[in-house]
Structures are given as C-alpha cells and as structure tokens.
Write a structure and sequence with these properties.
The chain is α/β, with parallel strands linked by helices and 470 residues long. Helices cover 27% and strands 26% of the residues. The strands form four sheets. Strands 4, 17, 18, 19, 20, 21, 22, 23 and 24 form a nine-stranded mixed β-sheet that branches.
Length: 470
Amino acid sequence: MRAHPAGPRHGDVFTPGAVPRMPAGVNALEPGIWPTSSHRASGGSLVVGGCDVRRLAADYSTPLFVIDEVDFRGRAADFRDSYARGPAPATVYYAAKAFLATTIARWVEQEGLGLDVATGGELAVALAADFPPDRIIMHGNNKSLEEIETALRSGVGTLVIDSVPEIDMVSAVALRLGVTARVLVRVTVGVEAHTHEFIATAHEDQKFGLSLATGEARDAVARVRSAPALHFAGLHSHIGSQIFDASGFEIATSRIADLAAKIASDGASIEELNLGGGMGIAYTSLDDPLGVPDMAAALERIVVKSCERAGVDIPRLSFEPGRAIVGPAGITLYQVGIVKPVELDNGLVRTYVSVDGGMSDNIRTALYDADYTVVLASRESSAPPQLCRVVGKHCESGDVVVRDAWLPSDLAPGDLLAVAATGAYCRSMASQYNYVPRPAVVSVREGATTTILRRETQADLLALDPGAPS
Ligand SMILES: *Cc1c(COP(=O)(O)O)cnc(C)c1O
C-alpha cells in the first residue's frame, strides 16, 4: 500500500506557512484532471471538445454539465481493450448509476461495453436506448417483484442475487414467465476499499450481498443451484469506490478463490467472476490512481495467482467501472455571483465565491468531503491568486462546491468557473432542493454540441403540484 501523498488538510489552509498547493498558475489546466480535449483559446477562455465555454454558457445557460464525447468513448475503449487482454479476458459493464441517459447508453453500446443497472429506472433508460438486454447486468439490494419481472421479460442477461429471500423471488418470477434467469451471487468478502486504504475484516457491516465469513454465500449458491428456473453463473464482489491501487482487490480475490474452491467441492463451477467497479480517478493533483492498463494487468495477475493457489479454474472475468469512464469526461460550468470576503478569527480573509448552482448539482463535497479542481474559465487573469471557497446558492452552510481553491483576485460577477471531473455522481445524484431546477447536460465533440438532458424548468417542477394552476 502506498502512502497518500502529503497534502494540506482542510482547516489549516489559512494559517501562514501551511497554505494549500498552489497551481503552476491560476490559469493552468493541470494534466490528467480535465477532459483530454481541454485547452485555453488564444483569448484565454476554456475550450472543451472544440467548444468555447462562453458560447456554451450563452447557448445553454449555467450551471451546465459538459461531457467530452471523445474523452468518454476513449476511456470506455481503454477499459474494453485493457481488460480484454491476457489469459482471463474480461467483460466490462459501464455502471449506469455514475451517469446515464439514452445518449450515454448508445455510446456504451457502440464502444462494445455492457451496462450495469441498479434500478427499474436505470433499466428503463437502457431499454429506451435499445441497449441490447443480454448485455445488461442488474443489481439492487431491494429489487421489487415488478423490477425483477421487467428485467426477465425484457431479457436482461444477468441478475445479481443480493440476499437469500431474493433467490426465491427471482426463481418464482422466472418460473411464472417460463424463462431461466442467469444469476451471479453477490458476496461480501470483508474488504472495504477506498483510495489507498482498505479495511479487511472477517465480517462486513453493510446492506449489500451475502456473507462469505458466515457461510451464507456458499449456502446461497447451493440454493440457487437447486432452484428450477435459475442458472448459477458465478460470483460478484464490489469492494468500494475511488480505489487507486489493486491491494484491496487482492485480498478480496483471494477470499473469493477460497470460496470458489468450496463451491467446486459442492459440485459447481464458477463460470464468471465479477469484481465490481470502483476504479479511481484524479479530482485534484493530489490523486494518483493507477492507469487503466496498469490496473487491468494487476487485477489479471491477482486473479490468476489466487485461482492457481486455490486450485480452481480461472473464470471469465467482468468489471463494472462507472466513475472512471464518465467522471473525467465531464465538467460543470457555473457563473460567479456574489464574491464576499469574510474575515476569520486569525485575521486572515476567506473569499466566498457564490455560484448559480451548488449542492443540488454536486452533493459530493457535502456528502463525502470530496475535493475538486476549479478554474476561471471565461478568461485568463494575471491577478495574484487568492484563497477562495466556492459555494452554492442553497440555504445550507454546508452547500460547498470546492472547499479551498486558488482563484484570481480579480474574480467578478459574471465570470465563468469550470469544475473538473464532475461527469460521475453529480447530475445522477442531483436534486431540486430549494426548487432549483436541475442543470442541462450537453456533449461536445469537434465544435458541435448535443443535448443529452435538457435543463429542467420551474414549470417542470410545478407540474408535479396539482394545486398549481396549469
Ligand atoms: C457503484 C457500483 C459500481 C460502480 O462504481 P464506480 O466507483 O463508479 O466505478 C459498480 N458496481 C457496483 C455493484 C456498484 O455498487
């Protein structure tokens, strides 16, 4: 396990001598964080996918999610190719929950990936995009009978069994429909991984999956195998998110291989092993995730080694990255409103920069204490940098987009800010808190734009209220 690079912690950044990292220049676009096509135009504004952000803001208003199509497709193709090499070629499913719309489902389909859905809603979007159902895997710790039925009727390729009662539910629905459901059994292996740290325990205290430690997973496999309308295809494990190296996967895989050996002694083989998603990305220059080919090669070695040690055949592998495909491809554009210097107890000043969105379009800062990279996007500036906190417009002091950021001291209302790596878990987790309509999502490519999701309107929100005049 590598140590996390030493960096400033929140809270000490305004103490002289302990200032946070200072970018090479406030105008610089740090490599590996922005969509691959990003650059500054000669006039200084940010250009993504050949589109000037000032034009995008004028045409679509702000806040606005912008997704670089070439970047998204490139990352999807990188996963497809990197994970297809070696003795255990893998299927890659894009995890829809990171962000899904019909356009995204079509890109995923065209790049040859499968799709991981977790609810009837995500499944409906996939089906609306004519995504081949046999390439869909369906998750969920509390699938309704209706969701199971829709999945089986529409020909979803694989269902992931998450609990003992669900075995009977899926079996009963499959019997009634006269189909055989192909299922994986989700195992909790007692490893929880996050960036450079993982915690390995015997038992796992969370809602997903069937316990390996108590024997519940092995029993569940036996029960699946004796159910008339189920085909036991293998095992599933998802250990966490924003994982930077393979060490957590190594323990998980080793434990799963031991389980596979026990299942083999019960007379069943593991045709497919799905190791989930969670591959990390760089939100700031402090983040250093393994590249896609390196992570793929490391996981491959781990699987081969674990299976050989446990004396089981190497199964077909599958993975479910979400964030690592769509996260870096997306940015958010905001317009600056009020800029308010606030004097702190230590006499220093923190400049609060309010933008026209906030926790309703990016809950990750409030929810996970996530960090982001932000730049002045509508122009360059030669003004000296000042320490800022980029905040939203919601009635909540925790409504922070970027906790500590260097921005030029001539920042003014009307300027555009761009926040990097917001493609995943921002629009998909968006709310209409304070009746703020959710932003549009547009894709950019070679100077052209496509609306992926239109902006919600106040009329959309009022339409839910039968008491409002229509
Ligand atoms: C969330 C999730 C994923 C995707 O996680 P990322 O961090 O976006 O790669 C994949 N599989 C399962 C089961 C998940 O819950």
